[in-house]
Amino acid sequence: MDGTGTNTRWCSAPGCMLNIKIMRRHFFRFPKDRKRWLEWIKACNRMDLVPIGPEFANRYYRICHLHFRVEMFRNIEGRIYLSKEAVPSIFLKPLQQTGDGNSSTTLFQPISFVTIFLKPESRNRNSTDLSQSEVSEMHPVKPDERDTAIISPVQALFPRSSLKQTYEDRNVSSAQTLLLDVKKENDNRNTSAEIQFIKEIDTNTEAVSTLARIFPKEECSNSDIIDLTSIDSPVPTTSKTVSVCTPPSKTVSICTTSSKTVSVHTTQQNGDRTPKRRHWNISTQTPEAWIRGKRPMEKSEICADNLITKRRKTFDAENEDNRLNMDQFKTACTDLLPRNSAMLVSACINACEKPKTKKNFKDKQLALELFFMASGAYRFYRPLCLLPTTRQLWRHIRNWDIPPGLNDNVLNALRLKIKSLLSTERHCSLSVKEMRLRPHLFYNLTRDKIIGFHDTGTEKRRTLARKVLVIMACSLVGDWEQPIAYYFHSNTCHTDILKDLIFQAIIRLKSINVTVHVLITNTSPTFLRLSRLLGISVERPSFLVNNERVFFVFDVTRLMRTTRNVFRTHDFRFRDKRASWMDIELFFRRDSQMRLPLAPKLSLSHLEPKGCQKIETKYAVQIFSGSIAAGLSAHIASGELPLEMIGTMEFIHNFDQLFDIFNSSTSTKSNTKNFEQTFTGSMHEMSFLQQTLDFLKSIKIVDRNGACVKSIKCFDHWQITINAVIQLWNVLQQHQLPSLCTRRLNLESIERVFRSIRRQSGNRVRPTPILFTYAFKNLVSKHFLEHSSGGDSAVNGRKILKRIETASTPSMSSLANEVPPATQVLNISATNYRNIDLRLPERSAFKRVCEFLLNECLLVHINCNVCIAYATKESSLSSRDTSSSFHLYISSLEDMFMRNFEKLSIEKNLGAQMLQLAQQIDYKPPCPDFPIVFLIKLFLRMRVYFTLSRHNKICKGIESRSSLNVIQL
Length: 969
Known about the structure:
Protein name: THAP domain-containing protein 9
Strand content: 5-15%
Mean pLDDT: 75
Organism: Trachymyrmex septentrionalis
Keywords: DNA-binding, Metal-binding, Zinc, Zinc-finger
Radius of gyration: 44 Å
GO molecular function, one term: sequence-specific DNA binding
Structural class: alpha+beta
Pfam family, one: TNP-like_RNaseH_N
Shape: extended
């Protein structure tokens, strides 16, 4: 059996839990053996447990350790065990008391109880220790009891902090509690054990005076509750002291329950060292002792308070001395150590001297600046200078307010990040793309505004947002990429607005030393109109922004898919040759029948793409691959295919090389690909691009009837992109860029952002505006902390140390603006209004809302009979009754909401403005303490919720709905 100290269990002994107060109990299960179980319940006087049986009693009933004799316990490796023959024998003794009314009541007279805590021993029964030998000398143990450990340290009885304080106040050098004597009284029927404790105290201390102060001579009345949690060890009302002559080196005083005195002296063993003379005090825990120790305890508490005050003064003086010593230490380090080492020591000392509180806004902004300065060095100095972790910095950025439009916090943080990069990594491209959204309105309680309308940062309309425009900056040479802005708009974004947004982004990036050279878009109608507005053509593939050229590039992956789609429905004629989709189908039928196909990846999904396969780039790229061109050449050479298919083979081969040169990423040359390495502007690359331009100019698109089609401009887009790359390389050479990774000249990075947003929104193809906002903030913080700064690590480390050294007066205004704590105007605790079913007739719904509002007010304003009577009267009246003042007031609030909500829905501080208008309506409450403000806030929260909820449900079924319509209750 093992005991546990949990406070949730209950001792089954009669009166134990109610009459005995103790700090910690050990509980033991009833035995499963029926014979022993009967002995236990008879000893406990719990014959009511006979019907349930030993199994049920073992599971649900416990006996605490106070009811067992001490020789029944063993403490093995920290767990308390009972011997197999243990039977509870110490209980509260019933006492018959007769009153004046000749009625007798049964009370419980507490007898001597102590707390049994044993010193842990090893599982090896042959092991002995010094304390056991001392006990055997002072108290002979019977032969059948020598295997019982009878050691109980004071540390198990009292908490360590209280024990330490008590001993320090009493100047006690050491203390050890030993079990000395177990005395049996009365006959075999009524047996009780008195368990005494021994305190070992130095005779040099003022023990006698301390005991005299704690235990006065006046008599105290008994109490029905035994308190075993007292710090001081009380003594019983009557004492007996026994003296026994043994060695002159030790004296033991034993206090028991009679008036005699006994002295115990032990003989010194041969060869033992002469110990110091010690004085032993023995006491038992009884109700009289607890009551007697009350007053001294109160006095000791007052003394302890005075001592604490003195210690605080002492600690303050010590802290001042420590500061002086630290200043001297810093000065010595500055004089003796190298500068970098001295700066590091000073930074570590300053960090340790700061109070360990939650990092404020400025501390996190400084840490973010240090991280951007040198991320590798930051990870080294973080534990030394107690800086925030990367996860904490991520949360800090995520808490920024990032509304639609260009955000100052994002751009300022990007400026610090760019500042730590090389000059060649500050040249970037600007990727712009749209993503479809599901119309959905959401009231942001923290920002006090509705999210989901058309919003470009500078202009907000009451039309629903169905698309979002995202702008992302990507380095042309480095590895950083950063989303910088997003804009909500309806179905079509006007070209003039789109042009202004892009120009603003380029100008703001230039202001933070980021030069934009390329604008990358896809071939959607919106961006084709933008290219025409900017005057983009084959001869002029760039436009000017503040007298700097920005090249317009179409996404190469989108161009490959467009070319594949046109190739499926049209034939191409160039240089007296023909390229047809039917040639690829014929090749697939011949090649699939071969035992070893020449184009093993070619499948029906490439020839007839369906669903998502139409927008996946790999199906288009694998059509224009070198393996298919080589397979066509082999079949034509063998005579299995006609010679006219050589035009299809040449067309596929040229587009395979064109895609390779626009998808280069590695610096090493491949053995199978000619243009897979990064673009360096070599003669081979330039000559191929010029030949490709001539080849694209010669292509004519012909339909199945043989008519020439001039409306398809996909090959013009190819020519614009090629000319833009050629001219871009000439500009980059002026900035001494070694090479150009052309894979960065596509929308792959922004496509990854869109995939992550959809995944964070529950794998929705069209996420809602609020889900997009949350995901975009996550991605902004993620991209900020991804890039590892380059450069010399030693130089970066010195920069961080200098910045930490000057952090006492930081200038953080340039990094980010501290967002003041938002005051949630309509913040209330009641949210059960969402359970109201308004699918009722108009009058019934209005009455249901009034009843709900009045009931919620009564829950806030409780114990008011006037308001309760008022609510009873209002509930008996019909809805919109002229005699019902509450119904008329709610009707006035409803009219105010209908008049103003649609007009104010796109404004900031929506809740504050609606609350101000609602407070202007007159209403006479039933009592002065009636919660009118709570009523107005609850009504506005409920109306906003029902209005937006109804609107969102309607938008699911009606795609053509473009604005918010407010419906009355």
